[in-house]
């Protein structure tokens, strides 16, 4: 089956689906599934905009609300993960995943589903070491700190995914797995994004948690976004025993939203021709969720996952055959995910703007139903209970105040990872693209209509992406030089056409807590960029 994979679409769903329609008309290619690797921006109304960790001047509605309201319907089944530019209050309603609109499914903080026999997993957010060992304690209305920490990856999600034993076909993360750049054309990457050099050379670019998952899951494909550059790599995994068959992962990072040609990729994936066309639960993943339910934490206290170190009575939470059989019996052997999308917030009305709409903490009926079905803890219900109990004792306000004061997490115990560099700790001047002419222009300027004279370049297979030979465990710079011509043909280095010699990382300068001042702008060819106070940018 044909799978379309998109990078950061930043809410421009109309343009995304129009591009797929153009692909069908011009090339006869019609994807069966669309995957989006974060920064999806499922913004329903003005309150959702207030929950996006970007300066207020860059908060624009885009077009998701049309699909949420029912005005439009996604023409292809769409599955996505969260990034670091999201309406966190909306996605937080669905910690275990669920429908954000008809035919558009969110995988949750972490999740695994099946479609036509293809196993698809993902983890939302980006890595920050100072929040990694905390529970999911945030809830709207967010403060200056929690609006960011809400989308930071937590160790419990990584722990759950590491309990999986069965093969994974496709996996998605927003930020890149750390070290993956050593398995592709590193020189070309640094030519396009020269400001990555220090982190690449010190091996601190990317998420160590995602790297850990890559080593454990060994999926056939791994897709990422976040850094706004197309990059392909091929990683040959080590085998744990002589009996184990060699495994390899084809990695692909996608560029940002349209009009960039490298923001979308079409691949051919082997599937089960006898499987149905419905999105399905994964029995092993559900069994893992049930097994790890007792580990759910909704406090901001740091804690470690169980390990085989003599300190924990139990450390293996992987699914047994009996546990998976129980899941199947609970579902009457029908793994189809119910189409139970429900409106939980007022939808944006362009004729009646409500700029003062405040976000509220919502319990989503989909999550309630899911937790009741499998005997799981509703994280948002637990958060509300903790908040009410804490407010009654006057503790919640005190915790919130301490949280704002300790924005760096310096009072915590040392992280198991020795750095705090997530996918992009240095400023990436390409993370948000704006129209060159204006500082307050709508972000939709990054998603212009496809030009009939310059249709986007697509690939109907993975064969046009440069793949390293199996014998090369880590590619050297010298080895990559001789292949630049091939890369030009593959489209991986298209972005290298722009001259980068004059680029300089933006320096942080002081500003107010909302990011409305202290922003330094520079103009480059066809784009202006900004760097906000937030270290996640």
UniProtKB/TrEMBL annotation:
<feature type="compositionally biased region" description="Basic and acidic residues">
    <location>
        <begin position="386"/>
        <end position="396"/>
    </location>
</feature>
<dbReference type="InterPro" id="IPR007708">
    <property type="entry name" value="DBR1_C"/>
</dbReference>
<keyword id="KW-0408">Iron</keyword>
<keyword id="KW-0479">Metal-binding</keyword>
<feature type="domain" description="Lariat debranching enzyme C-terminal">
    <location>
        <begin position="235"/>
        <end position="380"/>
    </location>
</feature>
<dbReference type="GO" id="GO:0046872">
    <property type="term" value="F:metal ion binding"/>
</dbReference>
<feature type="compositionally biased region" description="Basic and acidic residues">
    <location>
        <begin position="486"/>
        <end position="511"/>
    </location>
</feature>
<keyword id="KW-0464">Manganese</keyword>
<keyword id="KW-0862">Zinc</keyword>
<feature type="compositionally biased region" description="Polar residues">
    <location>
        <begin position="416"/>
        <end position="428"/>
    </location>
</feature>
<dbReference type="InterPro" id="IPR041816">
    <property type="entry name" value="Dbr1_N"/>
</dbReference>
<comment type="similarity">
    <text>Belongs to the lariat debranching enzyme family.</text>
</comment>
<dbReference type="GO" id="GO:0000398">
    <property type="term" value="P:mRNA splicing, via spliceosome"/>
</dbReference>
<keyword id="KW-0507">mRNA processing</keyword>
<keyword id="KW-0378">Hydrolase</keyword>
<dbReference type="Pfam" id="PF00149">
    <property type="entry name" value="Metallophos"/>
</dbReference>
<dbReference type="InterPro" id="IPR029052">
    <property type="entry name" value="Metallo-depent_PP-like"/>
</dbReference>
<dbReference type="InterPro" id="IPR004843">
    <property type="entry name" value="Calcineurin-like_PHP"/>
</dbReference>
<protein>
    <submittedName>
        <fullName>DBR1 enzyme</fullName>
    </submittedName>
</protein>
<feature type="compositionally biased region" description="Acidic residues">
    <location>
        <begin position="397"/>
        <end position="406"/>
    </location>
</feature>
<feature type="compositionally biased region" description="Acidic residues">
    <location>
        <begin position="432"/>
        <end position="443"/>
    </location>
</feature>
<feature type="region of interest" description="Disordered">
    <location>
        <begin position="386"/>
        <end position="537"/>
    </location>
</feature>
<dbReference type="Pfam" id="PF05011">
    <property type="entry name" value="DBR1"/>
</dbReference>
<keyword id="KW-0539">Nucleus</keyword>
<dbReference type="GO" id="GO:0005634">
    <property type="term" value="C:nucleus"/>
</dbReference>
<dbReference type="GO" id="GO:0008419">
    <property type="term" value="F:RNA lariat debranching enzyme activity"/>
</dbReference>
């Amino acid at each position: 089956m044909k799978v379309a994979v998109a990078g950061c679409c930043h809410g421009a769903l109309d343009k995304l689906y129009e591009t797929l329609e153009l692909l069908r008309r011009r090339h006869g290619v019609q994807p069966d599934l669309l995957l989006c690797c974060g920064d999806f921006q499922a913004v329903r109304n003005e309150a959702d905009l207030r929950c996006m960790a970007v300066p207020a001047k860059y908060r624009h509605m885009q077009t998701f609300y049309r699909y949420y309201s029912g005005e439009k319907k996604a023409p292809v089944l769409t599955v996505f993960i969260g990034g670091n530019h999201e309406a966190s209050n909306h996605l937080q309603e669905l910690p275990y995943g669920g429908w954000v609109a008809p035919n558009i499914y969110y995988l949750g903080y972490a999740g695994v589903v099946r479609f036509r026999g293809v196993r698809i997993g993902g983890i939302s957010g980006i890595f920050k070491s100072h929040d990694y060992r905390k529970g999911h304690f945030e809830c709207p209305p967010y403060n200056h700190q929690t609006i960011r920490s809400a989308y930071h990856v937590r160790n419990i999600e990584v722990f759950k995914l590491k309990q999986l034993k069965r093969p994974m076909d496709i996996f998605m993360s927003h930020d890149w797995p750390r070290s993956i750049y050593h398995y592709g054309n590193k020189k070309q990457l640094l030519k396009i994004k020269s400001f990555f050099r220090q982190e690449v050379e010190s091996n601190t670019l990317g998420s160590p948690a995602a790297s850990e998952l890559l080593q454990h899951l060994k999926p056939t494909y791994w897709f990422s976004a976040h850094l706004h550059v197309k990059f392909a790599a091929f990683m040959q995994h080590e085998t744990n025993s002589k009996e184990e068959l060699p495994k390899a992962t084809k990695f692909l990072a996608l560029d940002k939203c349209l009009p960039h040609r490298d923001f979308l990729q079409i691949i051919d994936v082997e599937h089960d021709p006898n499987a149905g066309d419905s999105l399905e639960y994964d029995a092993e993943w559900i069994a893992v969720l049930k097994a790890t339910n007792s580990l759910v934490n909704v406090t901001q206290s740091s804690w470690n996952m169980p390990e085989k170190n003599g300190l924990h009575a139990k450390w293996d939470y992987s699914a047994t055959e009996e546990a998976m059989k129980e899941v199947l019996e609970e579902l009457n052997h029908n793994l189809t995910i119910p189409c139970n999308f429900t409106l939980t917030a007022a939808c944006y009305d362009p004729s009646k703007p409500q700029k003062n709409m405040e976000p509220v903490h919502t319990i989503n009926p989909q999550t309630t139903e899911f937790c009741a079905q499998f005997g799981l803890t509703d994280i948002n219900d637990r958060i509300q209970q903790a908040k009410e109990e804490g407010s009654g004792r006057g503790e919640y306000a005190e915790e919130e105040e301490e949280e704002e004061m300790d924005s760096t997490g310096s009072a915590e115990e040392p992280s198991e990872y020795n750095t705090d560099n997530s996918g992009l700790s240095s400023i990436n001047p390409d993370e948000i693209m704006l129209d060159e002419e204006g500082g307050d222009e709508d972000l939709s300027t990054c998603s212009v209509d496809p030009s009939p004279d310059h249709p986007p370049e697509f690939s109907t297979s993975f064969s046009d992406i440069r793949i390293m030979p199996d014998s090369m465990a880590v590619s050297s710079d010298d080895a990559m030089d001789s292949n630049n011509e091939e890369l030009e043909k593959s489209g991986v280095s298209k972005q290298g056409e722009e001259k980068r010699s004059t680029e300089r990382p933006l320096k942080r300068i002081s500003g107010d807590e909302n990011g409305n001042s202290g922003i330094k702008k520079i103009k480059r060819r066809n784009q202006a960029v900004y760097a906000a106070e937030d270290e996640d940018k």
